[in-house]
Amino acid sequence: MIKVEGLYKELGGQPVLEDISFDIGTGEIIAVLGLSGAGKTVLLKHLIGLFRPDKGRVVIDGVDIDSLSEDQLLKVRCNMGYLFQEGALYDFMDVFDNVAFPLREHTKLTGAEVASRVREVLKLVDLDGIESKFPGELSGGMKKRVGLARAIVLGAKVLLCDEPTSGLDPIRSHDISDLIRHVSQQIGSTTVMTSHDVNNSFRIATRIIIINECRIAAIGTAEQLKGSQVPFVREFLQATTA
Ligand SMILES: Nc1ncnc2c1ncn2[C@@H]1O[C@H](COP(=O)(O)OP(=O)(O)OP(=O)(O)O)[C@@H](O)[C@H]1O
Ligand SMILES: [Mg+2]
Prior knowledge:
Elements: E1 2-11, E2 14-24, E3 29-34, H1 40-47, E4 55-60, E5 63-64, H2 70-77, E6 80-83, H3 95-106, H4 111-124, H5 140-152, E7 158-162, H6 170-187, E8 190-194, H7 198-204, E9 207-212, E10 215-220, H8 222-226, H9 231-240
Parallel strand pairs: 3-8, 3-9, 6-7, 7-8
Antiparallel strand pairs: 1-2, 1-4, 4-5, 9-10
Helix pairs in contact: 3-4, 3-5, 4-5, 5-6
Bound molecules: adenosine-5'-triphosphate (ATP) and magnesium ion.
Magnesium ion binds next to helix 1.
């Protein structure tokens, strides 16, 4: 579903990603881990065409997204959901309007159809009955859920989540991780998330990618990574796992 080949990217005159290649199968949940500034967000943004590679290719569902015009890219993005690190909700819109926004922008659904779809996804993220609240009235965990609802409202074949647990307490982090797995299974998405939450990532991901010094230090299942002999991977896991 997602194929990255020889991705190279410089930002501000410095290489951020070098020779990044991997394949992600339909229905996988991939966690991208690494130190702050390792390039996790930059990698995620390449997957939705917010950054374009200097070298290499990003292929989504058989389409090289670098070859697309802005219009074509917008169409591809309608099948992709992106949960921004800060939620990126519109503070002046209530929850209903925030989640309805992509439907109103990109579909011709009637008001009743929009309302029914919004209720459906809010239910999926366990947020019934808060449609008329504003983001300022919500906890961090609820905002993440609303952001997730908005990311999937158009039906995300590919779901990208940037730090879905950042800023949350351990219980909420555990819950939102479970929710991402549940939602991914329910909607049948291929999911890529970045995280500093190594334990929850290992729990829910089918495979994990660890980035260090612009390159992939390791890629594999939790078991494979726990047995990795790569010095950085061993150090990283020793420092971050319980
Ligand atoms: N728009 C940009 N312009 C210039 N440099 C950038 C830009 N975006 C990111 N960078 C640089 O790219 C590097 C990787 O940034 P990125 O945000 O991907 O890190 P990250 O792994 O997501 O870190 P964190 O864990 O803190 O979120 C950093 O050195 C950052 O300064
Ligand atoms: Mg980041």
